[in-house]
Amino acid sequence: MDHLALDQAARAILRKNDRGGYTLPTSGLYPYQWNWDSAFAAWGFAQFDIERAWLELTTLFSGQWPNGMLPHILFHKPDPGYFPGPDVWGTEGKGPIPSSGISQPPVAATFARMIYDKNPDAGRNPMAALFPKLVAWHRWFMRWRNADGMIFITHPWEGGRDNAPDWDSAMQAIDPVGVGDYTRRDTAHVDASMRPTKDDYDRYIWLVQRARGLGWDDAAVAQDQPFKVADPLMTFVLLRANRDLAALADALGEDRAELDQWTAELTAGAEKLRNTAGVFDGFNLNAGHHTGSVSNASFLCWYGHLDSAQMLDELHQAFDQCRYPVPSQKVGSDWFNAKRYWRGPTWGIVNMLIGLGLADMGHKAEAEELRARTAALMAEHGFAEYYDPLTGDPAGGGSFTWTAAVWLAWAS
Length: 412
Ligand code: 2M8
Prior knowledge:
Layout: H1 3-16, E1 33-34, H2 35-45, H3 50-61, E2 73-74, H4 86-89, H5 108-118, H6 120-144, E3 146-147, E4 150-153, H7 156-159, H8 168-172, H9 186-189, H10 198-213, H11 218-224, E5 229-230, H12 232-252, H13 257-271, E6 283-284, E7 289-290, H14 309-321, H15 348-360, H16 364-381, E8 386-387, E9 394-395, H17 401-411
Antiparallel strand pairs: 1-2, 3-4, 4-5, 5-6, 6-7, 8-9
Helix pairs in contact: 1-17, 2-3, 2-5, 2-17, 3-6, 5-6, 5-12, 6-12, 12-13, 15-16, 16-17
The protein binds (2R)-3-hydroxy-2-(alpha-D-mannopyranosyloxy)propanoic acid (2M8).
(2R)-3-hydroxy-2-(alpha-D-mannopyranosyloxy)propanoic acid binds next to helix 2.
């Protein structure tokens, strides 16, 4: 396909997955509105329909809980094709519409800023309405997911990298006793070898049941969930988002002091995510140790405006090892699996965030190399959920919203 045909195909995916105000990640496998998927979708729509971009974010925030938490899934309409649905989450009365009880990486403020900057006139009203909601959401993270400036997650789904090795030690410490029978739906849509294992799913569901048993109470979940892992992706994403929100505060004439303080706190916290090898890595808070993992999240340091010669060296290694970097786990590590989800495959969205960070920090050649290889991957293998980093084979769901958005907004 030539460039124009790829643009058209990517736009068609966004339109096809549009359910009127919100966009599905892909139909079948993910039949609801996901939090960070929608922020990427909005940035994709902004390339050709700015009104639709704002509508995506406005619909997303229609599901915000009064405590500021923005759920990771909004169940706008029932759909038996996905498990676990609203009956499992048991969050009735917590938010304005049926939803999950955990959040997801807060990329929305960063894309809201980019959409606003593209056309400040079109953005003034929606941005003014979203601003206090974004602040409330970030404040919720800073209060309930903050361990000394490192942002932690209480469920692997909260971090968006569901089966990353960063969570292995915390997951292994859980005995999912009493989880009961359930039927997965994901493996009816895609090959089970590309998805998390049954051991993973037992723990995912057990953690949901446990938080539900705690009434989704913020303090109880933050203190008592046995799964508490500080996450480089979450920390760098919130750090970046706070900076972007501060820039929006300036544009809107709002106060930025609290946002600047959070930025300073997270900048200091992110340093603690460096493991003894100097790599930004997950930290199991209950056990008190790093994972020893070089994941694609490790390379988000530049996105958070922290530089690292060592990570640049790791990036050059990834370029040498893979035709289609950045692998979600380092090639050659014991955990690496080229097809299994967040344990090896390349993800377009993370590549875009890494690329934006590299460009910001003056690593122009690496940013361009990553963009060009990502563009080749999509041109050769379509808009898949994720890809084998060695062969480029598409994996997971097809016709994927965030991958199409990344093509339109960055890779092309
Ligand atoms: C994946 O996660 C969901 C659970 O939230 C799943 O596997 O069922 C992750 O890749 C996540 O980051 C993403 O937001 C979601 C929808 O694309 O799928």
